[in-house]
Amino acid sequence: MDSRHQDDDLPSIDEFGERLDKSRRKDDAVEDLQRSERSALGQAFRIGTEMLAALLVAGALGYGIDQLIGSKPWFMLAGLALGFAAGILNVYRAMNEMNAALEEESKDE
Amino acid sequence: MTAVLATLAGPMEQFEILDIIHLDLAGVNISFTNASLWMLISVVAVSVFMFAATNRAQMVPGKMQSAGESLYQFIADMLRDACGSEGMRFFPYIFTLFMFIFSCNLLGLWPTIPGLPYALHTFTPTSHIIVTFALAMVTITILLVYGFYKNGIGFLKLFVPSGVPWWLLWLIPLIEIVSFISRPISLAIRLFANMLAGHMILKIFAGFITALLAAGPMVGWLAIFPFLGNVALFLLELLVAFLQAYVFAILSSVYLNDALHPSH
User: Fold this and answer.
1) Basic and acidic residues: which segments have biased composition (chain A) (predicted)?
2) Which of A73, B10, B34, B95 is 20 to 30 A from B26, alpha carbon to alpha carbon?
3) Do B193 and A101 touch (CB under 8 A)?
């Protein structure tokens, strides 16, 4: 009698599992939301700086060479062109990573 | 009145480096500054947090322990996604990096305690590009040292992607090298620019509030708008504090992946 009373009071394993699943799903939803927020803002900023950094580096290198051998402004111009190419490469790689991450995520679901 | 004057001071003043203890080593200024102080505070805060989280670890974790464990899990998953299980050898570094940047960003949002000497006002070390650049250079140094150690001279294949036609072999490595050098710069700029811009906007809006309040009762009530704006911005800054620490950590692990697998 006593043991049956306890069974009535406590949720069965199935019920407990269901509740656990439910609360876990809620966590996932929150996480998904956070993830999309995070990545939208982060991605936008990432693309911008990738491009800028490559232009800065190559432009500065070209300018440095110009200063050294007095060939203003040709190496800086070549550097900027090179920086543009490298920036596009950076952006291309960043987008590839983001796509891969996105595909991974949709595969999980 | 002094409080009003302090907020009306320019939005850039909060980034000024001030000596707390002046030190000099053979003509080189190695003073203990407010930047050093806030980095020290971050390190202490992270250590105390992690110690509290791991102290008396239990099967069913308490609040502290589960906060610590979820951060650990979060970074471990991120690193494993970026570098595979081999990449876990970088975990101590990446986790330290993330926790340090995150706590610097977060503590920088703490309001200055009124009445403290001016040099002790709240300061965000990560809003200085030299700090973020130094952190980025640590990542790149680990990448270079470990890359050459593991792959030898073959690490240079990083700059020559496979399948490049011979007549492009002079150009592609140049582009790859520029792209490589731009990595620490983009890491540094991203974190620094985010923190700098966020703190400047907060300060400017706060300046609007005091200016409007000082302008008299007719327009004083308008101060509610920049105030609400600042509340919203502050929430955004909390997100940015986390986001930028996360981005710095994930990009560091993506770059370190090149040391493990140098061919693109």
Assistant:
1) 16-35
2) B34
3) no
